[in-house]
Design brief:
The protein is an alpha/beta fold. It has a domain of 141 residues: P-loop containing nucleotide triphosphate hydrolases (Rossmann fold), CATH 3.40.50.300. The chain contains ten helices and five strands. The longest helix has 17 residues. The protein is globular, with a radius of gyration of 17 Å. The chain starts with 8 loop residues before the first strand and ends in a 5-residue tail after the last helix.
């Protein structure tokens, strides 16, 4: 194990179906000192395919096969270590804000070796029509026309229900906070921040001199 993960690092996890606002909340938190937003999708999009681990990732994706959970976490962990070494992410004083990883229970089991999830925020949006509207709007804004189709949207929501939602049964109830994501983003953010500042781990880390 590398020096960056000599002890389990503090983290919070944002969970929710596609369109629930995970990325929005994660980016806002990541702009606040002592929080580092770690979006798994951004890691994969910026991956250096010339590295050994990058080539292994491409071998699976180019064949249209699912990338093994162990390789996914290894790639993610490698990038986190790079951030730590470049001092963008400071493991001793920063909370990692997890967004997009773990994607399933197996990944959660793997990352538990070097991360401690202190709080899980479940962004709920039971109106699937609203989720679809948000996803369609985002896809068009980012010029990803294919992702705006009803078929793709329905498939992504089904995948979340089958693979990611079971994480809510994996983590203890006492660290899960349910947040109504149907409200404006600023109200959702307020709920998240109020819970974070009450965490014993946050209060303890707040004593550290930056």
């Amino acid at each position: 194990m590398t020096k960056a993960f000599a002890v389990r690092r503090p983290a919070i996890l944002i969970l929710g179906a596609p369109g629930a606002g995970k990325g929005t909340q994660g980016k806002i938190l990541g702009a606040i000192p002592r929080f580092f937003h770690c979006a798994c999708g951004d890691i994969f999009r910026s991956m250096d395919t010339r590295t050994a681990i990058g080539r292994r990732f491409v071998e699976y994706s180019s064949r249209g096969e699912l990338v093994p959970d162990e390789l996914t976490v290894e790639l993610w962990k490698s990038q986190v270590e790079n951030w730590a070494e470049s001092h963008l992410y400071k493991p001793d004083i920063d909370f990692l804000v997890l967004d997009g990883i773990p994607r399933n229970v197996r990944q959660a089991e793997i990352i538990a070796d070097f991360l401690q999830v202190h709080q899980v925020f479940h962004l709920t949006c039971p109106d699937r029509g609203e989720l679809a509207r948000r996803m369609r709007k985002r896809a068009l804004k980012e010029n990803r026309i294919d992702d705006a189709s009803d078929t793709v949207i329905a498939q992504r929501i089904e995948t979340y229900d089958a693979e990611t939602r079971p994480l809510l049964d994996h983590y203890p109830d006492e660290i899960i906070t349910v947040v109504d994501a149907m409200r404006p983003p600023v109200e959702v953010l307020g709920d998240i921040i109020r819970r974070i500042v009450a965490l014993p781990a946050y209060q303890e880390m707040g004593k550290e001199v930056v």
